[in-house]
Specification:
By secondary structure, the protein is an alpha/beta fold. The protein has a single domain, classed as P-loop containing nucleotide triphosphate hydrolases (Rossmann fold, 3-Layer(aba) Sandwich), CATH 3.40.50. Helix content is 49%, strand content 14%. The chain is built from nine helices and eight strands. A hairpin with a 6-residue loop joins strand 3 and strand 4. Helix 7 packs across helix 8. The protein is globular, with a radius of gyration of 16 Å.
């Protein structure tokens, strides 16, 4: 099962709760891109230097261990689960995720994780490219102001409390990168159910998704 969508649409929260409701594993594919970004920063590489980033990949090992709330992620044997959740790494992950070689390198990693089935995977190109044969696909979206407000609240109390206008601009920039990249741009899969979460509570979103799942499975 896949849940795609832009930043602030509610993917992570909904995917975690849906996985718990169904007794499935939760696959946070964004954590994999954050792990690559962490390696890029650790090695002092410019995330916009595509050749330099690509050169890091063959010597990089990323592993993910599942936990109910948040997966444990390690890079080259080091647990970076908390370190990859900073806003700096988030911004870097947005940049490296647009690099085709990074997306190609992580493709088999994601597919190996999903091969056993019984997962709720959330990301940006899962229904279109990573798991095109998934039995149930969703695409969550929301009004830009709503998404900015949600993201701003998430940042409160973290390493960098951002101004709302700044948060909104960062989401606009992220959308542009995600929707305009040549490889696997952010678009709903043709067979995905699109849900606008702007005026819905998390529980209402879950109930809508569960209704679709019940009808398809």
């Amino acid at each position: 099962m896949t849940i795609d969508g832009p930043a602030g649409a509610g993917k992570s929260t909904v995917a975690k709760l849906l996985a718990q409701r169904l007794g499935f594993l939760y696959l946070d594919t964004g954590a994999l891109y954050r792990a690559v970004a962490w390696k890029v920063r650790a090695d002092g590489v410019d995330p916009a230097d595509r050749d330099a980033v690509a050169a890091l990949l063959p010597s990089t090992t990323i592993a993910m261990e599942y936990r109910p709330e948040r997966p444990r992620v390690s890079v080259d044997g080091r647990d970076v689960s908390e370190e990859i959740r900073t806003e700096e790494i988030s911004r870097m992950a947005s940049i490296v995720s647009a690099i085709p070689s990074v997306r190609e390198w992580l493709l088999p990693v994601q597919r190996r994780i999903g091969a056993a089935g019984g997962i709720v995977a959330e990301g940006r190109d899962l229904g279109t490219r990573v798991f095109p044969a998934a039995g149930v696909k969703f695409f969550l979206e929301a009004d830009m102001d709503v998404r900015a407000g949600r993201r701003h609240r998430e940042l409160t109390g973290t390493d960098r409390p951002a101004a709302l206008d700044q948060t909104r601009q960062e989401i606009v920039n992220r959308d542009e990168r995600d929707r305009s990249r040549d490889l696997a741009p952010l678009v709903p899969a043709a067979d995905a159910t699109v849900v606008d979460t702007s005026t819905l509570t998390v529980e209402q979103v879950i109930e809508r998704l569960m209704a679709v799942i019940a009808a398809k499975l």
